[in-house]
Amino acid sequence: MEEIYAKFVSQKISKTRWRPVPPGSLQTADTFAAGSWDNEENYVSLWSIGDFGNLDSDGGFEGDHQLLCDIRHHGDVMDLQFFDQERIVAASSTGCVTVFLHHPNNQTLSVSQQWTAAHYHTGPGSPSCGSAPCTGVVCNNPEIVTVGEDGRINLFRADHKEAVRTIDNADSSTLHAVTFLRTPEILTVNSIGQLKIWDFRKQGNEPSQILSLTGDRVPLHCVDRHPNQQHVVATGGQDGMLSIWDVRQGTMPVSLLKAHEAEMWEVHFHPSNPDHLFTCSEDGSLWHWDASTDVPEKSSLFNQGGRNSTFLSHSISNQASVHQSLISSWLSTDPAKDRIEITSLLPSRTLSVNSLDVLGPCLVCGTDSEAIYVTKQLFS
Amino acid sequence: MEEMHQVAIAAKDPAIGRQFSSQVSILSAMELIWNLCEILFIEVAPAGALLLHLLDWVRLHVCEVDSLLADVLGSENPSKHDSFWKLVTILVLQGRLDEARQMLSKEADASPSSAGMCRILGDLMRTMPVLSPGNTQTLTELELKWQHWHEECERHLQDSTFAASPHLESLCKIMLGDEAALLEQKELLNNWYHFLVTRLLYSHPTVKPIDLHLYAQSSLDLFLGGESSPEPLDNILLAAFEFDIHQVIKECSIALSNWWFVAHLTDLLDHCKLLQSHNLYFGSNMREFLLLEYASGLFAHHSLWQLGVDYFDYCPELGRVSLELHIERIPLSTEQKALKVLRICEQRQMTEQVRSICKILAMNAVRNNRLGSALSWSIRAKDAAFATLVSDRFLKDYCERGSFSDLDLIDNLGPAMMLSDRLTFLGKYREFHRFYGEKRLTDAASLLLSLMTSQIAPRSFWVILLIDALPLLEEKEVVFSAEQTYELMRCLEDFASRRPVWREPGVQRIQEDVENTKLEMLRLALARNLGRAIIKEGSLEGS
């Protein structure tokens, strides 16, 4: 069973993110960033889980994560992303987007760039430029896309002072999260349960596609794209429901899986093992979804490279065409027939788990009970 | 607490170092009180065992002994160490006689002249009767044995066996419980409760709990010797020795700056059924009162309010009401925080609070022109009135500008449309526009008619609906059937008869004129359509 290390850090953690390892290197993740919220002074901090040769006088357990450096952050940290090895982008509840730079030689963080009024409200009732929280940020070097409660989408480029492109009033409700589909396309989810795809190559302020559920318009809080198949997207909703979508096919999700009892805050596909999905929720649990069960006896039309794909039986999607060359196990998984193994990773119920991130065999998550949990043996 | 201690030592700035040290001392005082309360109130140790517990208590809270012990033992010649006798004295004061004996044997090895005396003293130490936990001795047996042993020590002292070594002599006196000897060791004892326990150990080992306070009071007086007045901590401990729980709680509340310690202590004691229910003037008992105070304090903190919720849950009488009042007043700076608060309310079926919080959020959204957000909040609260307000806003926008804003929202309302009539009307009206745009004219026509006849359209919108019928009536083909045309006519007359008649001159007159013209056109179109419809239906292909 995995070993999970917990550390109480005296601040409620809203986001945790692994620092990406350089491509092609054999290192595993060893540093993560954490952002806090709801304090009078919030901090963005960097932590290290590197093995220490000998226990230092702190008496920390071997493998316990240690604080490297931190820096004060105005407003709650609403979202956090690593832009590259040294830079971290933080989205704030004051509507400001900040790029922090990490100096490894003296272990400090400093502000490298800041867009202070990235998100704001303009309305007949609000004072001019009342600030609006920025709710989501996603990076794809050199571009940074942010979305906020003002329904605005901003495209920034590092080292440019102004936004390269802004889509005002992209949505009449709050945009909760954003992710890149293909490089010029992004996908946003909002609080009336819609997914919208935006193409930056097009002019105009209209989305190129809108997808939504037919049932209740449950707000969607998080979204993540399958690492290899750019048309497969997973979203988590306010009622804890996990939905898998195929953005090429129709406007409805491929599968709906009843998951948590409260809002699902984050969903992540594992970047190198995409058959594994992780979700965390307000109800204090973190689940590991394993869809990689092999079903060898079911014959199918397609036999791709050693992995049998299960036969196509969808309960919801009316996917007529079977000429798919690559079938994701998520799209073709019928929850009634094939088993998805779900394990809960946290040892005991805590307050809400606000954030999680996975990289290689390592997982980190942050909770409202002021604790950060790290495990380095996810697939033991 | 250890971390804080280390930080205090390591702090470069002396002010911060002092602050940390004071925090450490407060925390250790709290631990002291807590442990004593555990021993006296919860374990309710009887005579005999009581002393053992008190000995443990003192040993736990005086920790320099171990480091000193390690120091001395680690040195080359332990008995020649500066602090050797100090160490042995402390060990005896704490009742750790086995270790004291070991030290004495080292001294005996080192200086043969005092070997004999050390041996005798060592024997005395070994033979001191103590109540071991598993022992089946009765108290009287122990008392007898102890009395016997005491007399033997007395005899040795009077025989001046230890006259040669003043150290050993004072040790013997301590073991006899001689108060003067004990008071000489004030520095080593450090505080009066240590003095109390040592005194009891060597003079009244079978002390009964009810007699404890007498000894406590006298120990305090003797120790302080009139030099200094008792500190708050001393008062609290005295109250504990007197088994006056309420006094302990009262003194702690006064001495400490927040309710954390007192609330938890009271809760623990209440669970052990030790607190008689005090009827405070608003009807709840002391435990609940303190828990409520503590939880209210948590709610005043910017981030600990989530913990406060759990505390309120455990207050049976006033907890829920207090939670309801507090939770509405948490400042909501972001939607995510609001969602967490709402989840807490929904888990406890506090629908009123959900409604009021959602209303506030929805109003903010409307002010910021985020109509989609406003709608999603009113859906969450199932607040039909607010949904009506939002839809009115949309309809007003349409009247002013002639087109809808936020089509993505209206087109995709889904089942949420049913929340309020106005919202349904909005959705259906937009559908009518879509039908018209897609040239599905019969569908558009029947939808329009149903909108008018089903009474869900607001009065102010009727004229627009009627005007919208005009292009359908003017189409080449007959869109409205005869029945439908009759319906339309009825609606028109209905509307015309109930139209408010404006009396103000000027602009209103012009508007009225325009309207009248429109209605005239409508009547004409309806009549024409009726004619065509009747003909069409009357002819062969129509029947």
From TrEMBL, chain A:
Coiled coil: none annotated. The keyword Repeat applies. The keyword DNA damage does not apply. It holds the Pfam family WD40. GO terms for cellular component: cytosol; kinetochore; nuclear pore outer ring; nuclear speck. WD repeats lie at residues 213-255, 257-299. It is found in: Nucleus. Its main location: nucleus. Keywords: Nucleus, Repeat, WD repeat. PANTHER family: NUCLEOPORIN NUP43. This is Nucleoporin 43. It comes from Neovison vison.
UniProtKB/TrEMBL annotation, chain B:
GO terms for cellular component: actin cytoskeleton; ciliary basal body; cytosol; kinetochore; nuclear membrane; nuclear pore outer ring; nucleoplasm. Signal peptide: none annotated. Keywords: Membrane, mRNA transport, Nuclear pore complex, Nucleus, Protein transport, Translocation, Transport. One of its GO terms (molecular function) is structural constituent of nuclear pore. It is found in: Nucleus, Nuclear pore complex. Its main location: nucleus. One of its GO terms (biological process) is protein import into nucleus. Component of the nuclear pore complex (NPC). This is Nuclear pore complex protein Nup85. It comes from Neovison vison (American mink).
